[in-house]
Amino acid sequence: MTSSYVIRGASILGASPADLFVSDGVLVDSAPSNAEVVEADGLVALPGLVDLHTHLREPGREDAETVETGSRAAAMGGYTAVCAMANTSPVADTAGVVEQVWRLGREAGLVDVQPIGAVTVGLAGKQLAELGAMAASAASVRIFSDDGSCVADPRLMRRALEYVKAFDGIIAQHAEEPRLTEGAQMHEGEVSTRLGLTGWPAVAEEAIIARDVLLAEHVGSRLHVCHVSTAGSVEVLRQAKARGVRVTAEVTPHHLLLTDELAASYDPVFKVNPPLRTAKDVEALRAALIEGVIDIVATDHAPHAVEDKECEWAYARPGMVGLETALPVVLSVLGEQWDLIADRMSRTPARIAGLSSHGLSLRPGEPANLTLVDPAARRVVDPSGLTSKSRNTPYAGTTLPGRIVATFLRGEPTVLDGKAQK
Amino acid sequence: MIKHLLSAADLDADTATLILDTAGEMAALAEREVKKLPTLRGRTVVNLFYEDSTRTRISFEAAAKRLSADVINFSAKGSSVSKGESLKDTALTLQAMGADAVVIRHPASGAPDRLSSWVDGSVINAGDGTHEHPTQALLDAYTMRSRLGKLDGLNVAIVGDVLHSRVARSNVLLLTTLGAKVTLVGPPTLIPLSPGAAVSYDLDSVLPGADVVMMLRVQTERMQDSYFPSAREYSRRYGLDAARMRRLPEHAIVMHPGPMNRGMEIAPEVADSKRSTIVEQVANGVSARMAVLYLLLGGKA
Questions:
Q1: How is the beta sheet containing A49-54 ordered, strand by strand?
Q2: Which of B289, B301, B299, B294 has the alpha carbon at shortest distance from B62?
Q3: Do B194 and A189 count as a contact with CB atoms less than 8 A apart?
Q4: What's domain B8-132+282-298's architecture?
Q5: What pTM does this model have?
Q6: Regarding the domain delimited by A46-360, which CATH topology (the fold level of the hierarchy) does it fall under?
Q7: Which terminus of chain A has a smaller tally of CB atoms within 10 A, N or C?
Q8: Looking at this predicted complex, what is its ipTM?
């Protein structure tokens, strides 16, 4: 395999076209000999994207996704690193499971797969998982999350926040007060009333975030808030950040684009947790992402088998695939603000996750983790054309801007000409 | 004519009025010795019931049979994604059997909408979760019109557990379309956000201006979920007893979609009074459902 490339005429973060030279996994300052040429005329080069919130489903639901298929979908979406959520079966709550996921990621070799460990045993919210053992394992876990469930017990949440300080860990909270969302099916509001679906009130998210920023402040720990979905949550985060609380937050592409009106079809492809909210929330989330109150975009890529979506709304599993459409959605929302996109989708998520070889500037000496995007291309999303093993995209038939042409992980192409290389 | 009846919102004023007029003709038929029309001979109507509801199923069955349709009763209670055949597979089965219409009762809101995307025949919503029950609204509107001579301008109070009521949702939509003024009455915990109608928490103040009071069934289990403190307190604040009934104008009627909790939301002497339309509603249910089947399956009015 070639290990030297000249990427000709790429526009780094939208700057004037220049050549990028790749040799032995890193960017170098002059053309290596015997380099393969990758034409990048009209393409924008970004640091490889980093996803802080991916469900790879392995072990347990290999019919929906595997570490390998999810990694390939990530590479096709321009990612070079993903953080794999812990709600697998068995749950990633021991060093053994996180090491298994980490090893599967290495074997696939398409993106760096960084496992996230569960906060509590079995995601049950009762007893701390062996966080230290996961941190000390080969997977070097630093992010812990019960995502899918909220760490609802305030005392347990406090202990988790405190405990991970010993190894600079971070708790990523799925903010959902469970008593306020029993049986909840969609955002509580005018549409849920009309559709007769049990509402998931915004306050169930905001109340937990408000509590958790106070807890994080009290114990001086790092808190990360998963998939922020409401305007009220943005205000809670804004105030906490102004006080200097060590809190970061993510928003998903779908919460930046879609609203609860889509539930009117009763097609569970639009069922997700937290649910799609109102246009007012979408507007607040966009503004917060631009302003930096929300730090990053994370996909919450949640593949599901057909039978888990082709059914009644109430019986369907929540979640949407997102790795392959994240950048196009963000591009449609933010426009060609390349530095902002690189910050929200690569630099900052890499920093939060402690992935030191990702999210770096594309300059000589740095690892060649990058992606090339054709901003002029537009494509209609076709579920059957997705690389992910699952088809539950809410964007079927939607035209989105931008096409990921190539992705390089440590100097080797995982995607070229829009096609996965292995 | 519309193909499916999934929501009362599917009906504009003209269509709704046509259904009510047709129901009137069907009711006249019930007076005759031979109560049967040959209109739907050779057509198949499937009653697909995922919930026990003897009264609604029998009503649809009688309606279809009086129109000479072949009726298949498919009781799928307990069936669900985890326990049995999926709704989609059931739909494909019904499709293969050549169902011209599927009448579906289902505990999940929106199940009829999903079903309508998988079968070629007409889908009629016979109650889905906490969403809608459009034929109930039609029979209620028919009953009001029969008793009071009109719908336009009527003041209708719908009282009780509006939050969980598919009857209330369909009635708000249909009655508003037909020009009635709806006021929803109940404790704030049982009134949903943005209900699409006027709201009052005080039944006594609403009664003197009401032409129609529709009492909704309130499940005593709701008090376990703190929607109200006790059955007694609920009954005291929102139950329709004889004293409250006297606050109503002379002509006003009292309705209930059944089954009733006598002594909870409605006192026995009210349920059995002259104002009560509860038994009429049952008879009108057959006529209204006949009209829906007749019109949806291409009968000529």
A1: A49-54, A79-84, A112-115
A2: B289
A3: yes
A4: 3-Layer(aba) Sandwich (3.40)
A5: 0.95
A6: TIM Barrel (3.20.20)
A7: N
A8: 0.94
